[in-house]
Amino acid sequence: MSEIKHSFVRTNGINMHVAETGEGFPVVFCHGFPEMWYSWRHQMEALAEARFRAIAPDQRGYGETEAPAPIEAYTQRKLVGDIVGMLDALGIGKCVIVGHDWGGMVAWNTALMARDRVERVIGINTPFIPRSPVKPTDAMRAMAAGGFHYILYFQTPGVAEAELERDVARSLRGFYQDPPEIDPTEIRKSVPGVFGPAGGGLLDRFSDRPHGKFLTDEDFDVFVRAFKRSGFRGGLNWYRCIDRNWEESAGQTDRIEQPALMITAERDVVLRPEMAEGMKTWVPNLRKTVLIKGSGHWTQQEKPAEVNAAILDFLSDLKK
Fold it and tell me: Are 72 and 42 in contact (CB under 8 A)?
């Protein structure tokens, strides 16, 4: 494996931990919840071998990057500012930006808010979604119809933290599971984000099984150590800004001009492949959509060869 270099940069008022490897056109990887830079280890190695400069930060609130206390410190504007400041600190003018889960939101929003810094954009599981006419939490309450919606559960400060930090390994085992062994068409029949009737916590809905086969025990321990150190508050605060993001995006364009690639996962129960349908309306230069068969939510770790192949094909003409 290529050597990973670690550094800290000052960006947007915080110290950010950055992992990177390789030389060539810079490709920035943005992780989701609950993850960290290490989620991109397979892609970083493949990109470095293909003569790209692979860069994966621990984003605000995660890993060894600072976690400011105020909830409002985690808006998309702040998170995009972190990426732009990181590029400045690293002496990078333009990059390709790749994002998965919440990192996908950062990638698309960086392409919108800092157009001159993004050459191309890649979404993994997270499609570009135009601004809703309705406040997000209001839409989720209507969707949940009285059931348990995990994002609504995350809204009250301290509640999810107490549950998830009680036993970090148990919590991460609940998240890091292999995809459900059901027909993918059955996934469409459930309501995204809604897990059963109201009451109780999130882990009540996750069986305590061994972590998914896409992680070795050593990989899993990397995540456990990181979240024992950082806790979950920073990552949860991203969810608590969803209405703020909606308010701040009023009047913002809903059009991504850069060349784009969308990678979807057949068995992701929340970020479903059909969510990317019609995306070309807002992303006119969407060059390709790739469906990763058999993958659940943790796509870049579950199916690294397929994800790497799609990324490298999309970026083949950017090699130096």
Answer: no
